[in-house]
């Protein structure tokens, strides 16, 4: 009797196919794992960056002195709120305008002025300086080519170089104002006078 023996032999083509499938599956698994790991890393970084206090190198050091218009406005407001820094310095003088330089810094200066009833600055500009006018107490009236504007305590006016105005205390009570100039005030040409004349009192 002849017996037939069947052997399970794998052909070379089948072996290559299996090897390729195994390699592809391994590569896919590795790529998926890498993608997941990368996503987790990105998410973690975003979570950390979301809390700026947790990433010290992202913090900007606080500036000791103001450098922008917004920062000069903020400086004026902070001084206005700190009454202990200026209230005791205020003097009223019926014979002449009283003023006191309160603070100086790189490229700016801060002046404190008082106004008795009826006192005014005259029409003037501030040369090359920009400025922030803040009323600390009382009420001041500002006259410009555009009309008249009343500033009460807490009110502010920001102006650019060449801005011309006249500031007057039209009330029956004293007033106090704060003036920040940047750069520091070097001239204050009076518009009611000859261009060669100027007044050095800030306003």
What does this structure look like?
The chain is of the alpha+beta class. It contains two helices and eight strands; from the N terminus they run H-H-E-E-E-E-E-E-E-E. The chain has helices spanning 12-50, 69-81; strands spanning 98-105, 108-115, 130-137, 139-144, 147-152, 156-159, 166-168, 175-182. The strands form two sheets. A five-stranded antiparallel β-sheet has the order 1-2-8-3-6, with helices on one face. Strands 5-4-7 form a three-stranded antiparallel β-sheet, with no helix packed on it. It is globular and about 45 Å long. The model is unreliable at 1-17, 35-42 and 193-200 (pLDDT under 50).
Please summarize what this structure is.
By secondary structure, this protein is α+β, with helices and mostly antiparallel strands. It has helices at residues 12-50, 69-81; strands spanning 98-105, 108-115, 130-137, 139-144, 147-152, 156-159, 166-168, 175-182.
């Amino acid at each position: 009797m002849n017996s037939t023996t069947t052997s399970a032999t794998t052909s070379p083509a089948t072996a290559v196919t299996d090897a390729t499938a195994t390699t592809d599956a391994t590569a896919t698994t590795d790529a998926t794992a890498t993608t997941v790991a990368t996503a987790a890393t990105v998410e973690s970084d975003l979570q950390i960056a979301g809390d700026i206090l947790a990433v010290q190198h992202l913090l900007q050091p606080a500036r000791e002195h103001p450098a922008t218009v917004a920062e000069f406005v903020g400086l004026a407001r902070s001084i206005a709120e700190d009454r202990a820094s200026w209230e005791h310095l205020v003097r009223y003088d019926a014979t002449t305008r009283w003023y006191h330089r309160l603070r100086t810094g790189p490229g700016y200066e801060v002046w404190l002025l008082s106004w008795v009833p009826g006192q005014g600055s005259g029409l003037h500009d501030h040369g090359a300086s920009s400025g922030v006018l803040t009323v600390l107490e009382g009420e001041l009236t500002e006259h410009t080519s555009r009309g008249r504007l009343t500033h009460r305590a807490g009110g502010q006016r920001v102006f650019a170089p060449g801005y011309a105005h006249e500031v007057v205390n039209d009330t029956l009570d004293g007033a106090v104002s704060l003036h920040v100039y940047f750069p520091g005030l070097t001239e204050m040409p009076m518009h009611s006078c000859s261009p060669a004349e100027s007044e050095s009192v800030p306003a």
